[in-house]
Structure formats: structure tokens, C-alpha cells
């Protein structure tokens, strides 16, 4: 019996699911739900990475959370404000790099729990950082790819977009420390000596790219190919399915997600990121309802070192919370921390203080 574990984060409810599939023609998913009691205090997971020691890290609006196997913990970062972390990346040595919106690229100092500035930059807003011993690739999904040389501190901007504004970087994949690939409107580009050079021209945009077991998988408008780049670079094999199996087709003009799994199947997220699709022995099938997950936005897919699938997602419409009842004594204050110690319920109606935005008494 073969097993596939899937973990899913979903905003508004802080969900983390583990799913095991029984070997069969059609997998049966057994779902285990994780919530805020496991320590994931922010449900909107934007990206996921794994340290070489197996520890999993997640980027959220409240900063980075990590899991060593016994639940999630918040990584203390003193200078990091709410909703400012754009992207993060981990080197094989365990170095943690952070890109903070409107500030730039930092390296995390674990002993001081602070950040040390490497590159001041207010223009880039990367969604992913790919780290190698020499380079840090700053990828803004569906827009651009910039590169930071760690030794010299030099920033290399997206030269292809500079030459042609609509030549966007739709997808990126770090295959190894020496092989970085980017999918653009006219093919796949490889990073060589500080420059991205065309390595596989295509007539359609490469909107998704990934690597698995020495093969490169990439998606054009309606077809997925596998490419043995190293041993047989001239052979581009069209896979046995066509994406017309999908109810929602991509128009090939935006970034998508494609992830092969250990069972010979594929996970796929269309450009509007509203549904997760899976293909095993038959055609693609939608999975969110089958897994008991509300429709929403898929932020990221990640396969860990053990072959488990992790999915970062958020519910459509944002994290709204409702209750049935009456609000009789409530005050909303902006800009001031009112209760900084143990909370004692007030015995008299609340009054307006500095920063009060909403005050309810005996409503």
C-alpha cells in the first residue's frame, strides 16, 4: 500500500490537512484537520519552504511559522511589521533570507532575532526567493525575475523585460544550485553567468514549470510536456493527457502551478487559482470539494523531501468571522495597545478615549 500525505492551509479557518491515499484506480483521501490550536496563528499561507533538516517554514501576514514535527511556532523577528514580508528563502546551510516590502532584502540573525540589511530596494515585490550559494533569485510570479549576487551585493534586474515590456516571467524553477529555469512568453530560459539565456524556444507562453526525478515539466496553453533536459535535450515528450480535460481552461496569459507527484500523477492550479485539480490514472478532476475545502484562492503548492504535498490557500472573500448575538459594550481603538497584561472585564460602560473608532454602549 502506497501513501501520499497532503497538507493544506486555508485562510479564515487556519486549516492544515493531512491526507493519505490508498493505492487504487481512484485515490481515496482520508483528511486530518489541523487548526490554530496547532500553533498556526495566521491562516493565509503565501509560500512554503523546507530546511534540509526537514523543518517546514511558512510565510504568512503575521510573519514566518515553522514546524519541527510537533506543531507550528512563530519565528521571532523583532523588526518585522505585520503584512510586510513579501517573500523568504532558505539556503542549504540554513540561512534565512527575507524580502520586506518597500525596504529590501535581509538576512535573519537567529542570535539577535533581528534582520541585517543586504539590499535596499523599494521597487521589487517578489513572491518567491530561490537561494543558491552564489545567487538569490527574486521572482515576482507572472511579472519579473531579478538576481542578487551574494558576494558582490550586485542586483541584476530583469534584462528581458527591459528589452520587451510584455516578455513577462510567468514561472520559475530552481532545479539545482547550478540550474535555474524561467518560463516566459517565448520559451524557457536558463541562468548562465549572470544572465538568463533562451534554452528552449516555444510558440506559446510557458506558464508553469517544475522538476521531478531529473525531468522538467512545463505547460503551454493547452498541453503539458516533459523534457529530459540533461540526457536527451532534443526530446520534448507530450504527456498522455490534454488539459482540455479541465472545465476551466487557461488562456495561456498568466502564471499557473504544476506539480508532479510520487504516484505518476499531477497537481495543477489554473491561472485564476480558484480550484485545485488532480490527475492520476484518468483525466483531471477538481479536488477542493472532494477534500472538504471551501472554494478559494490557491496561493502555493509545495512538495517536501518525503514527497508529501503542501497547499497554501485562502477562502474567497477574505477571513470574515460572524457571530449570532448582541454587542452591548464594545470599543475599537486604533493605534494604541489598551490591554497589555491580564484582561479584567470592565464593570462600567466603556468611554471614548484617544484613537476610538467605534464605541457601542447598551446596543
Q: Which structural traits does this protein have?
A:
1% helix, 31 strands, 5-stranded mixed beta sheet, mainly beta, single chain, disordered N terminus
Poorly predicted runs of 5 or more residues: 1-5, 10-18, 248-253, 318-324
From the alpha-carbon coordinates, what is the Rg to the nearest angstrom?
23 Å
The strand order across the widest sheet is 3-2-1-29-28
What is the 3D shape?
Answer: globular
Number of strands: 31
Distance between the termini: 60 Å
- Give the proportion of residues in helices: under 10%
Structure description:
The protein is an all-beta fold and 363 residues long. It has one helix at residues 159-163; strands spanning 6-10, 15-21, 29-34, 47-50, 56-60, 63-67, 72-74, 85-90, 96-100, 104-109, 114-120, 128-131, 135-140, 144-149, 155-156, 169-176, 179-184, 187-192, 195-201, 208-212, 215-219, 224-227, 236-238, 257-260, 266-269, 276-279, 285-286, 296-303, 309-315, 329-333, 356-361. The strands form eight sheets. A five-stranded mixed beta sheet has the order 3-2-1-29-28, with no helix packed on it. The radius of gyration is 23 Å and the shape is globular.
Put the structure in a nutshell.
By secondary structure, the protein is an all-beta fold. The protein has one helix at residues 159-163, and strands at residues 6-10, 15-21, 29-34, 47-50, 56-60, 63-67, 72-74, 85-90, 96-100, 104-109, 114-120, 128-131, 135-140, 144-149, 155-156, 169-176, 179-184, 187-192, 195-201, 208-212, 215-219, 224-227, 236-238, 257-260, 266-269, 276-279, 285-286, 296-303, 309-315, 329-333, 356-361. The longest helix is centred in the middle third of the chain and has 5 residues, at 159-163.
Amino acid at each position: 500500500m502506497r501513501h501520499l500525505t497532503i497538507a493544506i492551509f486555508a485562510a479564515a479557518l487556519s486549516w492544515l490537512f493531512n491526507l493519505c491515499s490508498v493505492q487504487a484506480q481512484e485515490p481515496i483521501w482520508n483528511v486530518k484537520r489541523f487548526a490554530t490550536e496547532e500553533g498556526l496563528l495566521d491562516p493565509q499561507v503565501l509560500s512554503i519552504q523546507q530546511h534540509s533538516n526537514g523543518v517546514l517554514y511558512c510565510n504568512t501576514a503575521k510573519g514566518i511559522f515553522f514546524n519541527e514535527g510537533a506543531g507550528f511556532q512563530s519565528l521571532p523577528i523583532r523588526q518585522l511589521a505585520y503584512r510586510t514580508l513579501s517573500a523568504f528563502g532558505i539556503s542549504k546551510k540554513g540561512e534565512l533570507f527575507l524580502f520586506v516590502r518597500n525596504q529590501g532584502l535581509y538576512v535573519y540573525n537567529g542570535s539577535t532575532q533581528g534582520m541585517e540589511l543586504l539590499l535596499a530596494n523599494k521597487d521589487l515585490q517578489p513572491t518567491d526567493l530561490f537561494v543558491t550559494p552564489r545567487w538569490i533569485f527574486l521572482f515576482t510570479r507572472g511579472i519579473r525575475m531579478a538576481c542578487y549576487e551574494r558576494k558582490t551585493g550586485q542586483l541584476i534586474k530583469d534584462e528581458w523585460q527591459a528589452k520587451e515590456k510584455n516578455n513577462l516571467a510567468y514561472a520559475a524553477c530552481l532545479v539545482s544550485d547550478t540550474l535555474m529555469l524561467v518560463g516566459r512568453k517565448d520559451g524557457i530560459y536558463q541562468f548562465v553567468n549572470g544572465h538568463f539565456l533562451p534554452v528552449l524556444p516555444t510558440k506559446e507562453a510557458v506558464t508553469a514549470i517544475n522538476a521531478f526525478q531529473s525531468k522538467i515539466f512545463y505547460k503551454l496553453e493547452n498541453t503539458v510536456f516533459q523534457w529530459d533536459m540533461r540526457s536527451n535535450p532534443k526530446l520534448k515528450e507530450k504527456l498522455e493527457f490534454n488539459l482540455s480535460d479541465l472545465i476551466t481552461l487557461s488562456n495561456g496569459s498568466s502564471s499557473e502551478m504544476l506539480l508532479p507527484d510520487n504516484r505518476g500523477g499531477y497537481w495543477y492550479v489554473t491561472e485564476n487559482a480558484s480550484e485545485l485539480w488532480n490527475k492520476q490514472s484518468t483525466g483531471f478532476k477538481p479536488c477542493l470539494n472532494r477534500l472538504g475545502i471551501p472554494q478559494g484562492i490557491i496561493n502555493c503548492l509545495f512538495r517536501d523531501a518525503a514527497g508529501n504535498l503542501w497547499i497554501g490557500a485562502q477562502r474567497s472573500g477574505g477571513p470574515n468571522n460572524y457571530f449570532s448575538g448582541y454587542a452591548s459594550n464594545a470599543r475599537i481603538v486604533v493605534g494604541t495597545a489598551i490591554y497589555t497584561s491580564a484582561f479584567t472585564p470592565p464593570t462600567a460602560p466603556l468611554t471614548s478615549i484617544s484613537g476610538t473608532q467605534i464605541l457601542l454602549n447598551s446596543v
